[in-house]
Amino acid sequence: MAWSLTVGYVYGTAVRIHVTFLLFLAWIWVAYYQRGGAGAAWDGVAFVALLFLCVLLHEFGHIFAARRYGVKTPEVTLWPFGGIARLERIPEKPSEELVVALAGPAVNVVIAAVLLLLLGGNVGMEHIESIENPQVSLLAKLAAANIFLVVFNLIPAFPMDGGRVLRALLAMRMSHAQATQTAASIGQGLAIGLGVLGIFGNPMLIIIAVFVFLAASGEAGQVQMKQVAQGLLVEDAMITQFETLGPTASVGDAAEALIRTTQKEFPIVDGAVHLRGVLTRDAMIRALQAQGPGASVLEAMAEVPTVGTRTPLDRALALITQRGAPVVGVVDSGGRLVGLLSPENVGEMMMLRAAQPDARFGPWAKRSPPARPVA
Ligand SMILES: [Zn+2]
User: Fold this and answer.
1) Which of 284, 145, 159 lies closest to 212 in space, CA to CA?
2) How would DSSP label each residue in 186-246?
3) What transmembrane ranges does the database entry give (predicted)?
4) How many whole angstroms from 106 Cα to the centroid of ligand 1?
5) Smallest Cα–Cα separation from 306: which of 329, 323, 326?
6) 83 alpha carbon – ligand 1 mean position (Å)
7) Position with higher pLDDT, 128 vs 150
8) Which of 107, 109, 52 is nearest to 83 (CA)?
9) Distance from the alpha carbon of residue 158 to the mean position of ligand 1, in angstroms
10) Residue 121, burial from CB neighbour count under 10 angstroms (0-12, 13-18, 19+)
11) How far does residue 90's CA lie from ligand 1's centre (Å)?
């Protein structure tokens, strides 16, 4: 990801800090400096840095819980508004999602408990109000902030952990898609309530409400897309008409093909129609700038994953998101390239199916429609 610095790796997960987070730290320093001089400025930065260490540990709570179920996490990024761990997938088994969702806040419960023990148990709500005051002990503020993190994250609305906890609990009694829909509706109801509170009180609540409302619709949409894909195969959605380039082609040849067609990705195939890689429009332009039109497509191309024609479409979609691949090559049983699958053409097919769920057009018309869950 651009604009973020990798500061290290923990068990295969890259820990990144977004540039805006560093700007945020600088802003904190200046804000505290104006109020109480250099001493206060460093105290302020130390508190925010420690707070975000707690946020990072919270994310690693999720990451380590997910590892138990075989889900890897390539990276976690710290932003001024919190941490985002990019899990390869969210476990769909309700009990597993429940554990993964709860593991994050559980870390903050432990941190708060340890800090409270260290402080001898005398920290109360008054410290949350005086959190801006540099005189209040750093540890007490940190304990209060961890308690706040637990409460905030357990609000039962996406994208908070509480939304996932709610979905997991609902999914124990209904289908995953239904549970998501119900959890999203509850979250949106909460967001509206929060927005109304914001009108009469803190305007910050209105911003949070809008954020929560949009996140809930996004989550519901994603699950709908997955549900549409269920029961379909890669061959139902793949592009079958496209131009290919030979291994001896130059980037200049590829540029000509780019103009001649509407394609943006060109597969490079050898004499046996085996896929060697894919040359994207961006890679083509980079190669033209760096090496000129004579450069070999083999040097400029990128390798992409391949799937069989009978692979379930949802699994191929997951592969595209996990690997960040521009396209996926579709091969027949002999390993020959017979199709391409891109996020765009899958999206087009989804729109067609959403518009006419029972229509009998397209390759899937040959088979009976996928089974729908009984309401
Ligand atoms: Zn969390």
Assistant:
1) 159
2) HHHHHHHHHHHHHHHS-THHHHHHHHHHHHHHHHHHHHHHHHHHTT-BHHHH-B-----B-
3) 15-33, 45-65, 98-118, 138-158, 190-216
4) 9
5) 329
6) 8
7) 150
8) 52
9) 11
10) exposed
11) 13
Centre of ligand 1 from the C-alpha of residue 60, in Å:
9
> Which residues lie closer than 8 Å to 11 by C-beta, 6 or more apart?
64, 67
Q: How far is the CA of 229 from the centre of ligand 1 (A)?
A: 28
**CB proximity list for 274: less than 8 A, separation 6 or greater:** 335, 336, 337
Residue in the block written with tokens 């091969």: 331
β-strand pairing of 265-269 with 82-86: unpaired
The pLDDT of residue 19 is 86
Ligand 1: distance of its center to the CA of 56 in Å?
A: 10
In the reported structure, the alpha carbon of residue 215 is separated from the centroid of ligand 1 by a whole-number distance in angstroms of 15
- Smallest CA-to-CA distance from 230 within 346, 71, 100, 95 is with 346
List of E strands, the chain = 4-10, 13-18, 75-79, 82-86, 265-269, 275-280, 306-308, 328-331, 337-341
How far is the centre of ligand 1, averaged over its atoms, from the C-alpha of 160 (Å)? 7
Distance 91 CA to ligand 1 centre (A): 15
Give Cα separations from 50 to 25, 76, 161, 282 (angstroms): 12, 17, 21, 41
Cα of 101 to ligand 1 centre, how many Å? Answer: 6
Is a pLDDT exceeding 70 seen at residue 107?
A: yes
Query: Out of 90-94, 117-121, 135-139, 329-333, which region has the weakest mean confidence (pLDDT)?
Result: 135-139
Contact assessment for residue 131 and residue 124, using Cβ atoms and an 8 Å cutoff: no
Residue pair 2/75 in contact (Cβ under 8 Å)? The answer is: no
Q: How far is the CA of 320 from the centre of ligand 1 (A)?
A: 25
Distant-in-sequence, close-in-space partners of 347: CB < 8 Å, separation ≥ 6: none
Q: How far is the CA of 355 from the centre of ligand 1 (A)?
A: 36
What spacing in Å lies between the alpha carbon of 198 and ligand 1's midpoint?
Answer: 24
CA of 326 to the centre of ligand 1 (A): 29
